[in-house]
Design goal:
The complex is a heterodimer of chains A (175) and B (309). With 175 residues, chain A is mostly helical. Chain A has nine helices and no strands. Chain A has helices at 7-10, 18-32, 45-56, 63-77, 83-97, 99-102, 107-131, 143-150, 152-164. The longest helix of chain B is centred in the first third of the chain and has 39 residues, at 74-112. Classes of the chains: A mainly alpha (175), B alpha+beta (309).
């Protein structure tokens, strides 16, 4: 078996900085608040980035972060308070549980796992809304998570870039 | 001596315990919000926290608009100017007539001692973005309680009613559109004064007149305006046009679908109407019998005679 095929085995990454995580989550929130033409088709960037950090750094980002982000999304969109909080905490839990398995695969196979995770989160929020008396908006709501999953390879490469940066090279060092 | 793992191995509570904690917290919030509406204060704080991100997110579109406006050619501007002048002329004529009619109405009202309708205060606002929620129809506007927007105020655009302010934060507020499934508005057919209630039809972007008898006097193309009965919407604002009527003998009610007059799902700028306080107090409910009688007005005279006896 060639270890070179495994993305996680290709390089030893530098430790992640908290600033990178915070900035990426802020950008994801910003993307979610963009005025999308069709909200059912737009991917949920916050869920995607949250799943990414839960898979990559389960000790730094977890259920608490998911819950807080969910509350912010709920308040910003004026939906039931707790709907996204519940969905994102469950998403974070599932992502942490499967994190070791997911990282074993190549990027596109990872995306399949992530599609399942995002669909699960969307299903949870749909269940909450239907229980609260909303009308089912149609099967278009499964498109957003699928679009989000196809963005997974892009997001993975982009968010790992800071950790691929070489350490400061000391020109005067002897060895 | 108690044995505990060194701090290096300590990872806090188990994931399942955390999940149970956060899930129950979310469920508690959901119940508090959906059933009792106890969470408005917390929601306002959170909304204030995300407001900078929201306004930042709408910036690219605004910037693009400004840039395209800068590069608009002179001929285009001149053309638009002429068009607007013509429109202004037409509208000012109508406005003059309206003013005269309003003065006359006020005089007549004073004559009969009716409460004079107070002039409406309109606050212009910009739609920040559509609520990212496929289950309801909401938009967020950039005026809040700082600009004295109040919950319940009607929101209109240049063509008619758009919706109603349902939640007010400090700097922004949420407007539920007419097409939301839970939104209702009292209307009146312009042609014959028939009163009805229009409900949102959800995802189709249309309105529905419910509980109209199958033989109700209503036609395709009838214009609907607000009737002003509820005291929330001022009377006479355009609401919708009847687009389709399905009368089925098997049902007691007709299915009437209407097209909203305003660009409910597509406008950029809206007016929040406020300052309407002409609503009269509800009559005291003394005897339920009398209420029932006024509701059934088929043969009022005979019933009144019965009651008097």
């Amino acid at each position: 078996m060639r270890l070179g095929n495994l993305p996680s085995a290709q390089a030893i990454l530098r430790p992640v900085r908290a600033g990178t995580i915070l900035a990426s989550l802020a950008v994801a929130l910003l993307l979610n608040f963009l005025p999308w033409k069709n909200v059912a088709l737009a991917p949920d960037f916050v869920a995607l980035v949250l799943a990414f950090w839960c898979v990559r750094q389960p000790r730094l980002v977890g259920l608490g972060a998911g819950w807080l982000l969910g509350l912010l999304i709920d308040a910003g969109n004026g939906v039931l308070l707790g709907q996204h909080a519940l969905a994102y905490s469950l998403l974070a839990f599932a992502a942490i549980t499967f994190s070791r398995r997911i990282l074993w695969f190549a990027l596109w196979s990872q995306a399949l796992h992530v599609a399942a995770l995002l669909l699960f989160a969307q299903g949870v929020s749909a269940l909450v809304r239907l229980a609260a008396g909303a009308e089912f908006p149609g099967w278009a709501i499964v498109v957003g998570p699928l679009v989000g999953a196809t963005l997974w390879p892009v997001v993975s490469v982009l968010l790992l870039l800071p950790q691929h940066m070489p350490a400061d090279v000391d020109e005067t060092r002897a060895i | 001596m108690e044995h505990s793992p060194p701090a290096f191995f300590n990872r806090g509570p188990a994931p399942l315990v955390r999940l149970a904690f956060f899930a129950s917290l979310s469920l508690a919030l959901l119940v508090l919000d959906a059933r009792f509406r106890y969470t408005e204060g917390m929601r306002s704080v959170l909304a204030l926290a995300v407001y900078p991100l929201q306004s930042l997110a709408t910036m690219p579109a605004a910037l693009a608009e400004r840039i395209s406006g800068y590069f608009a050619s002179q001929s285009q501007l001149r053309e638009e100017n002429a068009e607007l002048r013509a429109k202004l002329l037409a509208i000012s004529q109508v406005a003059q007539r309206y003013e005269a009619a309003q003065a006359e109405t006020g005089q007549l009202r004073r004559l009969i001692g009716a409460a004079e309708r107070l002039p409406l205060k309109a606050t212009p606002a910009e739609i920040l973005y559509n609520g990212r929620d496929p289950y309801s129809r909401k938009v967020v506007i950039d005026k809040g309680s700082q600009s004295s927007v109040r919950a319940g105020s009607p929101v209109v655009d240049e063509n008619g009613v758009v919706g109603q302010v349902t939640r007010v934060h400090a700097l922004s507020s949420e407007v539920t559109l007419l097409t939301d499934k839970e939104q209702a508005i009292p209307v009146q057919v312009v042609r014959n004064g028939l009163r009805a209630v229009a409900f949102g039809a959800g995802s189709s972007g249309m309105l529905e007149l419910r509980f109209m008898a199958a033989n109700a006097e209503i036609q395709n193309g009838d214009k609907l305006v607000t009737s002003g009965i509820d005291g929330t919407y001022p009377p006479g604002l355009p609401v919708a046009t009847v687009a389709r009527i399905e009368r089925d003998a098997a049902y007691a009610f007709a299915r009437i679908v209407c097209q909203p007059a305003a660009g409910v799902e597509s406008g950029g700028y809206v007016l929040v109407l406020g300052g309407q306080s002409g609503r009269l107090a509800y009559p005291e409910q003394t005897d339920p019998e009398g209420e029932k009688r006024t509701a059934k007005f088929r043969k009022p005279r005979r019933k009144d005679a019965d009651a008097a006896r």
